[in-house]
Amino acid sequence: MPHTTSLEHFDFLQLLRMLADNRKTGLLTIYRPQGDFEAWLEQGLVRHLQLGHLQGVLALAALLNDPQGRFHFDEGRTHPSPALKQTVDSLALEAMASLPEQDMPFAGPARMTDAERLDAMDWTDEERHVLRQIEQQVPVSDLWSQPLARGLISRLLRLGLLKERRSRVARLVVAVTHEVRGVALIDDLIFRRWKEDLVRHPQVLALRDEAGHIYQFPLRSGPNLGTQLVLPPDLIMQTRLRAGDSVLVKPV
C-alpha cells in the first residue's frame, strides 16, 4: 500500500474540491476495511466514482454517510472507461440529498459565500426561489419548515456555500479629522469583517445617531482607529453630530 493519510482530520469534500480546483488528473483512493472508494479525476472533473459494487452518486453518498479511512492520490492516472464528466459540486449536491437530515444550524439569515460556484450549478425553479429568499435575508428558521428549503440549506452549508450572516452593526464614537475630505473612516479590522460578510468591498456607510437621524457617507478604512468613527469637518457639517457622540454604523 502506498503512503496514506487519515481522513480523520480532513473534510472529504474539501479534499476532493481542492484537487478539482487545481485541475488535477489522477486517482484518489480511500482505503477502508469494508471496501476501497475510488474517485477518478481528469482536469478537475470527476470521471468515475466507485465503492464496492456502487458507482457514481450512490458511491459518493455511501462514503459521505461514513467518511472514514486513509487516502492517497495517485497523480496522472486516468480511468480506462469513465462514465462521468461532472463537477464536484454537482455530484455532491445530488449525493447529499440522500443523507440524514440535519438539525437547524442557526435561526437567523444566511449569506452565500461563492456566487460563481452557485451560478455554475443547475437549479430547479423551486430551488432558485429558495436561493432568492436567502439573498433577501429571510431567516433560516422561516425556511426550515419547507422540506425542499431545509434540504437545500443543509447541502449548501455542507459544501461551504452558505454561512451564518452575522450582525454588521457596530457602535462607534465620533472623532474629527482634518486629514481627509468627503469620506468616513473606520478601523481596518471592522472593514475587513464587513468585506468578508458582504463578499465585496463596502463603499458606503450608513450612520444612525441617538436621535434616530440617518446619514450615508462614502467609506474608507484606516489603521488603529479602534472604536472610532472618524469624520472630516465637511461631513460633520451635514449632521447634528459632535465629537464624542455614540452612533450605530453599518455598510450599505
UniProtKB/TrEMBL annotation:
Task: Name the domain of life this protein comes from.
Answer: Bacteria
Q: InterPro entries of this UniProt entry?
A: PatA-like_N (IPR025497)
What residue stretches are annotated with the PatA-like N-terminal domain?
6-101
Provide an example Pfam family for this protein: DUF4388
Instruction: Give the protein name, as stated in the record.
Output: DUF4388 domain-containing protein
Organism lineage string: Bacteria, Thermotogati, Deinococcota, Deinococci, Deinococcales
